[in-house]
Structures
1.
Amino acid sequence: MASTSLNLFSAILLLILLSKGMSQRCSTNDLQISQDKTGVLVQAQPEFEVKVLNACPCLQGNVKLGCNGFQTTDEVNPLTLLKSGNECLLNNGSSLIPFSQISFKYAWDTQFSFKPVSSEINCN
């Protein structure tokens, strides 16, 4: 009986430590960016849909993507993606909840490679 209680206590302690460790390891690497052609042409340019997934179990806010050289013939809603210099602010700075995604579309002759630059992680 004591062995079963000790095993249960050990399992619970391990889960607590793992959950605390996961929240501390969140970073911009947990922002997964994918994009595909939509099949639509905008002003003779192929349209791309970009999806940014927060794969972190914590909120990620004030997400900035590197977008030096980014161009589009199709206007992107500035509340979704706002270009400022070499960076783009995602979601108007609002937090992406854990395991959710936000998407936007743009049109250009080639696909642009967006990379996460920074975010503010909140694991409360």
2.
Amino acid sequence: MTGQRDRWAELTGGQAGDEYARRFARLAAAGHDVHGEATFCTALLEPGARVLDAGCGTGRIAIRLAELGHHCTGVDVDSSMLAVARRTAPAQDWLLGDLARLDTLGLDTDFDLVLAAGNVIPLLAPGTGAAVVGQLAGALRPGGLLVTGMGLDAAHLPLEEAPVTLAEFGAWCTRAGLSLRQRYATWSGDPYNDGGGYAVSVHTRPAT
């Protein structure tokens, strides 16, 4: 999420880390698959790929991707979320920073995949979406992938209405030099139909 009073901060006050982690621990204990995003991304990657988890939160996905053999860096603006990630996986790279200013964090720009899951895009600060997508695209190597998951209606968001449409998001990606490769309705790969409430999109940066 970004630091310009993003929608996530308005919802949580920046103090949601421990409760967020407990929520997923309860889901895992109840037998739910909490690693769908990591499984989805791994299917797109070669072994030992470099992944940037943008808006990584408590590190749930990045930690799982590291367990699967990938090299993961997590970035988030919420220090309470990062505190959980650092406590859980202290050897991994966790950076506190604004996604609209990734280029100030000293990151490399040759990631094989950049992930923005967990409704990162809809919960950005108003007016920053295009800048954030541009920064995420800039972190990719030629041929790299931007993978996003986002709710498109109130049933799939912690908001009364969706602040971003797929058309708007697509325009930001096009402006950033990305092209749509695949789109699904779930992290399990169910086909997306127009008007669906959730979209998992895979965009690619041109190889040349």
3.
Amino acid sequence: MAANRLQIQGDDSVLLRVTHANLKTFSADIRFSLQSTVDSVKEKLWKKCGTSVNSMCLELYDDTNTKLSDLSDNSRPLGFYSPLNGYIPISFPF
């Protein structure tokens, strides 16, 4: 099923599959508010995987593992990058 069909109408959050480039065994489904800034997403991920916020670089992939964008502006809301349920942000140290 395509990720865009998994989005719940009227919901301001998204369920993302999170993986870590340096921790091959790390994978989690985490719900994020689309209003959360990239910086607050990094804070939430820090608590889950232990990589410091300043060492993270987030990339957004779709459900076919095609890279869509770098989440490079820490002040932007996650929704700016238009993630859908099932998309994958990757965090890894610089």
